[in-house]
């Protein structure tokens, strides 16, 4: 058993170290690698103070509870909140990894190790989940504080409850991870589950704002007392209204600690038994999922159908650029990350459209609200698209080599990527515009057209810069997996900043013209000029970006494949 | 001799490591050239240099009379490649991948459709042509990559391990296809670890070892030059200096 644990610890350690070491092929890549590591290091280091702070608070709180300090009672409320957040994150994060467990089921099933032992090792690995590492010191510090405060009985119970809570969290992580592996080993099912999950989470986040809050924001002055109460209810969570809360791990843990500490000083058998039962149930479920996974480690069901393809050409583009544009568009709309980005981006615009059914906080006149929503949808679409426009070459992965092997020039590749991306950009922009038209149909059609032209102009104007950033700072980025890489942080930040800046200039000129002249025709004329200028910038900028691409082809093809 | 591939002093370094060390390739037009060597000898790096995926550190190259460094697009129009990693878009179907390549090569839509249908049928991929490449087995990917390389009707084919992971039926089909292609005037440059196959299929070979070209020429002539007419395998083992394991016999390995 010890030997097996050592082998798995060695495996995980070497994977981590070798992943950090990597190779450097040129100076650009060295800079790129260092900045990427820096961001990861900052994230990792930022967890440490959080863990220390929680530990200190738990110790002080435990000490205070033991000595009857009334203020320390807030500790259990804090413990409830922290454990609730960690429980939810532990349950969801393995699913967001798209691919579930990090284990290679095929490799594990070939090892001469009993399945039960393999399962125990896989489950134990979840203790290393960063979220658990943040709370484990606090769960151990609380009994230490109680002991130091002179309540050894309560300390023993708190320690036992803490271990049971950790067991529940570890088992929960195991269940989520293994069920994820079962679902996600079927690519189509996994993609569907990922998109559904993320859209669900996003919608849940917006849901409370769609009912009473929009009433409050839309008509702040004529808000009735009942409406105010409705707003209050929407943002107040009363545990007594939800009986299921009583059986959640965080509630059982906190209630158990409250029962064990003085003055109650009772043995919290019921909460402890509840936690133990939950741990057993989750552990059993994880074992079942593990068994299913090991029984058919390489199962990959696929759907077969005949496919025919007509190689149509995008008007105005060369055949090669058209092919690149179509391939890029398909990649974006067929990948999990692409779909999530495209379909979640217009949600805030939809929300604003609903909230601004009166006047949008007095910013513009009612006749202009729809146009403003289009503008919001535009900037949201642009910002969300920059997530993959700033790594537009590496997202092709092996397909990039195929592109490079063909007789397409750098300019054709850059232009194709820009136009393919624009087709994808029209999806969130289109959804936002439809929402705006449906909810705020008033206003001059010329203004609507002008706003759309300015948003498109912003996209075109930023496209050469995004291509150059993608060539200079590539990062392995798999759009088909939720947790398989991201664009390079430097490219992301610079890309986002330039997108916002270009958008501000394009739409600012249009807005200023309309505000000064009050004439939709003048607004449309300004938008036409802006669009023409942006198209000119794109046409001149694409060959320049192509130079960056041509200089970095070799490196890009390797980075795209994660080498 | 009319050469399809001609390199002089082709060299590629990765830092201090020399992957290809000044090789002079001479591949005649219309030949089926087998490029063999042990793992890590520099075969794939050579193909990557020739196909423009890697820039050579030194040396000159000529493919079909053109310089791939000064005129890469013109060379790529004439060349088909099945690279080591197959280089396919995971999120496209086989039919879409073929349409992509055909369009990049500037072929008319009707020609792309016609050739795609024929190639997919030949590779037994018609029924799966609507599936994403992500769902394909390794053999299906290999066949898709070969179809992609053939679609533009190239004058020169580079195939990196074309028979690896391919079933016996497909392997036979590919062999017949390559022989037919060469008969029609095409040139094939392939790497393979299966020496028997190279011996039966190829008319010319080059042997690379530690980045250096240690033998090159017509396969019959090379064998005739050796005492007793060695097989390709024997010649290969002699050229790369393979030993019987330097005295290690894994005596502990017992059934």
Keywords:
heterodimer, A: 563 residues, mainly alpha, 2 domains, 0% strand, globular, B: 255 residues, alpha/beta, Rossmann fold, six-stranded mixed beta sheet, four-stranded antiparallel beta sheet, 9 helices, 10 strands
Provide an overview of this structure.
In chain A, α15 runs antiparallel to α19. Chain A has two domains: 42-222 and 238-295, no CATH class; 319-560, no CATH class. Chain A has 21 helices and no strands. Chain A has helices spanning 2-21, 27-66, 74-96, 105-110, 115-124, 130-148, 152-184, 187-218, 225-234, 249-260, 269-295, 319-334, 336-344, 346-355, 369-389, 398-405, 410-439, 445-472, 489-517, 520-551, 553-560. Chain A is mostly helical. The two termini of chain A are 35 Å apart. The model of chain A is unreliable at 98-102 and 212-220 (pLDDT under 50). Chain B is an alpha/beta fold and 255 residues long. Chain B has a single domain (3-239), classed as Rossmann fold (3-Layer(aba) Sandwich), CATH 3.40.50. Chain B is built from nine helices and ten strands. Chain B has helices at 43-50, 72-78, 94-104, 109-122, 138-150, 168-183, 195-201, 219-224, 232-239; strands at 3-14, 17-23, 26-28, 32-36, 58-63, 79-82, 156-160, 187-191, 204-209, 212-218. Chain B has a six-stranded mixed beta sheet with strand order 6-7-8-4-9-10, sandwiched between helices. In chain B, strands 1, 2, 3 and 5 form a four-stranded antiparallel beta sheet that branches. The model of chain B has no long low-confidence stretch (mean pLDDT 88). At the A-B interface, α12, α16 and α21 of A face α2, α3 and α4 of B.
């Amino acid at each position: 058993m010890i030997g097996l644990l050592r082998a798995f610890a060695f495996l995980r350690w070497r994977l981590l170290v070798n992943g950090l070491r990597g190779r450097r092929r040129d100076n650009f890549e060295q800079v790129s690698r260092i900045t990427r590591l820096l961001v990861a290091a900052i994230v990792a280091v930022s967890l440490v103070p959080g863990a220390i702070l929680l530990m200190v608070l738990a110790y002080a709180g435990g000490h205070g509870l033991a000595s009857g300090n009334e203020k320390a009672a807030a500790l259990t409320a804090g413990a409830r909140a922290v454990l609730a957040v960690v429980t939810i994150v532990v349950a969801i994060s393995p699913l967001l990894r798209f691919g579930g467990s990090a284990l290679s089921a095929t490799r594990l099933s070939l090892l001469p190790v009993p399945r039960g032992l393999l399962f125990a090792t896989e489950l134990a690995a979840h203790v290393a989940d960063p979220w658990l590492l943040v709370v484990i010191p606090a769960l151990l510090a609380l009994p230490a504080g109680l002991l130091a405060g002179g309540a050894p009985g309560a300390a023993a119970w708190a320690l036992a409850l803490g271990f049971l809570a950790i067991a529940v969290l570890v088992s929960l992580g195991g269940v989520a991870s293994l069920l994820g592996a079962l679902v996600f080993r079927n690519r189509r099912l996994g993609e569907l589950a990922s998109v559904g999950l993320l859209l669900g989470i996003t919608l849940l986040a917006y849901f409370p704002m769609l009912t009473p809050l929009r009433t409050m924001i839309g008509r702040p002055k004529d808000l009735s007392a009942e409406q105010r109460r409705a707003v209050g209810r929407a943002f107040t969570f009363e545990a007594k209204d939800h009986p299921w809360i009583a059986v959640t791990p965080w509630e059982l843990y906190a209630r158990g600690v409250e029962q064990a500490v003085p003055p109650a000083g009772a043995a919290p058998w019921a909460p402890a038994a509840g936690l133990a039962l939950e741990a057993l149930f989750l552990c059993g479920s994880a074992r079942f999922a593990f068994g299913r996974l090991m029984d058919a480690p390489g199962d990959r069901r696929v759907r077969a159908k005949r496919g025919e393809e007509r190689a149509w050409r995008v008007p105005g583009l060369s055949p090669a650029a058209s092919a690149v544009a179509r391939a890029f568009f398909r990649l974006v709309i067929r990948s999990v990350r692409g779909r999530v980005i495209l379909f979640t981006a217009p949600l805030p615009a939809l929300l604003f459209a609903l909230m601004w059914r009166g006047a949008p906080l007095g910013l513009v006149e009612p006749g202009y609200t729809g146009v403003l929503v289009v503008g919001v949808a535009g900037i949201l679409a642009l910002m969300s698209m920059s997530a993959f426009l700033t790594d537009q070459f590496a997202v092709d992965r092996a397909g990039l080599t195929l592109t490079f092997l063909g007789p397409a020039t750098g300019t054709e590749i850059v232009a194709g990527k820009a136009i393919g991306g624009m087709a994808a950009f029209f999806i969130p922009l289109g959804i936002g515009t439809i929402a705006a038209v449906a909810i705020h149909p008033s206003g001059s059609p010329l203004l609507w057209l002008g706003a759309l032209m300015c948003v498109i102009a912003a996209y075109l104007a930023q496209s050469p810069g995004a291509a150059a950033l993608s060539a200079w700072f590539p990062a392995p980025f798999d759009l088909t997996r939720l947790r398989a890489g991201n664009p390079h942080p430097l490219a992301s930040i610079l890309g986002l900043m330039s997108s916002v800046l270009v958008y501000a200039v394009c739409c600012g000129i249009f807005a200023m013209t309309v505000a000064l002249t009050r004439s939709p025709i003048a607004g449309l004329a300004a938008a036409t000029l802006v669009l023409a200028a942006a198209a000119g910038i794109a046409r001149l900028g694409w060959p320049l970006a192509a130079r960056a691409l041509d200089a970095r082809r070799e490196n890009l093809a390797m980075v795209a494949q994660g080498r | 001799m009319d050469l399809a591939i001609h390199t002089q002093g082709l060299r590629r370094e990765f830092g201090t490591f020399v992957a290809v060390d000044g090789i002079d390739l001479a591949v005649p037009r219309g030949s089926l050239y087998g490029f063999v060597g042990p793992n890590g000898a520099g075969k794939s790096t050579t193909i990557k240099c020739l196909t423009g995926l890697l820039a050579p550190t030194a040396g000159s190259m000529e493919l079909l009379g053109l310089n791939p460094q000064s005129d890469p697009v013109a060379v790529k129009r004439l060349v088909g490649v099945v690279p080591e990693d197959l280089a396919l878009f995971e999120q496209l179907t086989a039919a879409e991948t073929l349409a992509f390549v055909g369009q990049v090569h500037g072929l008319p839509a009707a020609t792309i459709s016609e050739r795609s249908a024929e190639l997919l049928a030949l590779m037994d991929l018609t029924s799966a042509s609507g599936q994403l490449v992500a769902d394909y087995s390794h053999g299906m990917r290999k066949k898709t990559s070969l179809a992609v390389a053939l679609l533009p009707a190239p004058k020169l084919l580079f195939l990196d391990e074309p028979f690896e992971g391919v079933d016996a039926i497909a392997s036979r089909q590919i062999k017949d296809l390559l022989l037919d292609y060469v008969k029609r005037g095409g040139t094939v440059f392939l790497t393979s670890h299966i020496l028997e196959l190279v011996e039966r299929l190829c008319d010319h070979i080059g042997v690379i070892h530690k980045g250096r070209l240690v033998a090159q020429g017509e396969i019959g002539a090379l064998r005739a030059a050796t005492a007793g007419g060695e097989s390709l395998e024997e010649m290969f083992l002699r050229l790369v200096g393979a030993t019987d394991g330097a005295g290690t016999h894994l005596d502990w390995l017992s059934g």
